[in-house]
Amino acid sequence: MRDVMHLEQLEQAEALFKPQRIEVLRRLAEPHTCGEVAEQLGQTPQRVYYHVKRLVEAGLVTQVDERKVRGVHEGIYQATARSYWLSPRLVGRIGGLRRTQDELSLGYLLDLMEEVQTDIAALDRTAPELPSIGVSGEIRVPPDQRREFFQDLRSTLQDLFERYGGSEGDAFKLAVACYPKGDQDHD
């Protein structure tokens, strides 16, 4: 079982859009038969099998074993991952044409975040070492100093790219996002 599965196909997302299937998927964090899950949920085995079949078709559940009970073959199923990430590309973007440079920048940030999410989902979490760093913080910049702040940020990043941008060594992706915080409460 993987830690994270990145969902990029519409069929996979649609398989999760039913609360009953999400509950079945949760129960399949450990291997179970449809009958066992049905008993836990107070449903019929046929109803649970219908949902499991859709989850298997979407690649979200796999049959890990099979046993014979009273002459009937019974599948044992398990979720393929502990958690699932839905690609923002599947959701789409709401709104009309971008009208200002700020809106274009925000569109780029959405694309960048999707790219980072895809890259992280593709990492081999079983690797003995995954050198990475995540930093987040809030900076308050007076309106009359915004231009200077952005120039300082650009200059600092450019210095890093020039200093470590050679062709030798391990490749790392650096993504920096700077955006206005949603709640603009001023003290």
Automatic annotation (TrEMBL):
One Pfam family, short name: HTH_20
GO molecular function terms noted in the UniProt entry: DNA-binding transcription factor activity
Domain HTH arsR-type: 15-99
Protein name: Transcriptional regulator
